[in-house]
Amino acid sequence: MPSRQKKVIFCIAGLLSFGCALSVAVAIGTQFWVKGTILCKTGAQLVNATGPELDKFVGEISYGLFHGQRVKQCGLGGRPFQFSFFPDLLEAIPASIHVSVILFSAVVIIFSLVAAAFFMYNAFGNPYETLHGPLGLYLWNFISCSCGCLVMILFASEVKLHRLSEKIANYKEGNFVYKTHSEEFDRSFWIILFCFTVHFLNILLIRVSGIQFPFQESKETDTSTGAADLMY
């Protein structure tokens, strides 16, 4: 591929990686990872609420990685409450998984910035082999892609398997029991999926630019070396 087209591809991939870093950084600080509704089970059972009456006992909840908000509905009107995971909810949530989600999100930001820098370096600089050259481009994007996938898997397991919304709603609730009524991932979670897709596409762009995958290059090098040994 001509060098000008390769520069254009690397510049586009670099801008996409930089955009991913900014998007994930913004997503981490928001509370728009999960939104849903919480049913006050105790209150609904006390009055035998069904149909439209049940709406009086359905509150709302939304949260991110650090803080969130819930609205209690127990038949007496909504009561909003703000909460934070650190240090308030560490006893109630699976803390190891939650901290891992935050750490892997930070890794996505760091290596997205590294990938963006190396794309620009390969476009306008004089890269040499090893991590500054094609191998580095594949490596940084693969790390970002893998960590983005881990963030989604760990957070989804925390929410769905460990029933994170119910644990938040029932934290220090002595008189009422809350149950998840509806739940869905919000836009900040889908930003992680978008960034995962972008880094995967970046790997394809590197291949389209004419750079072989690292394991393909090693095979070709071994073959050529073996032929040279036979000649001599």
UniProtKB/TrEMBL annotation:
A Pfam family of this chain: Clarin-2
Membrane-topology annotation of the record: Multi-pass membrane protein
Assigned GO CC terms: membrane
InterPro entries: Clarin
Signal peptide (UniProt feature, chain positions): none
PROSITE patterns cross-referenced by the UniProt entry: PROKAR_LIPOPROTEIN
GO BP, one annotated term: equilibrioception
TM spans (from-to): 97-123, 135-156, 188-206
Major site of localization recorded for this protein: membrane
Subcellular location: Membrane
UniProt keyword annotations, A-Z: Membrane, Transmembrane, Transmembrane helix
Assigned protein family: Belongs to the clarin family.
PANTHER family the record matches: CLARIN, CLARIN-1
Protein name (database record): Clarin-1-like
Organism: Acipenser oxyrinchus oxyrinchus
UniProt lineage: Eukaryota, Metazoa, Chordata, Craniata, Vertebrata
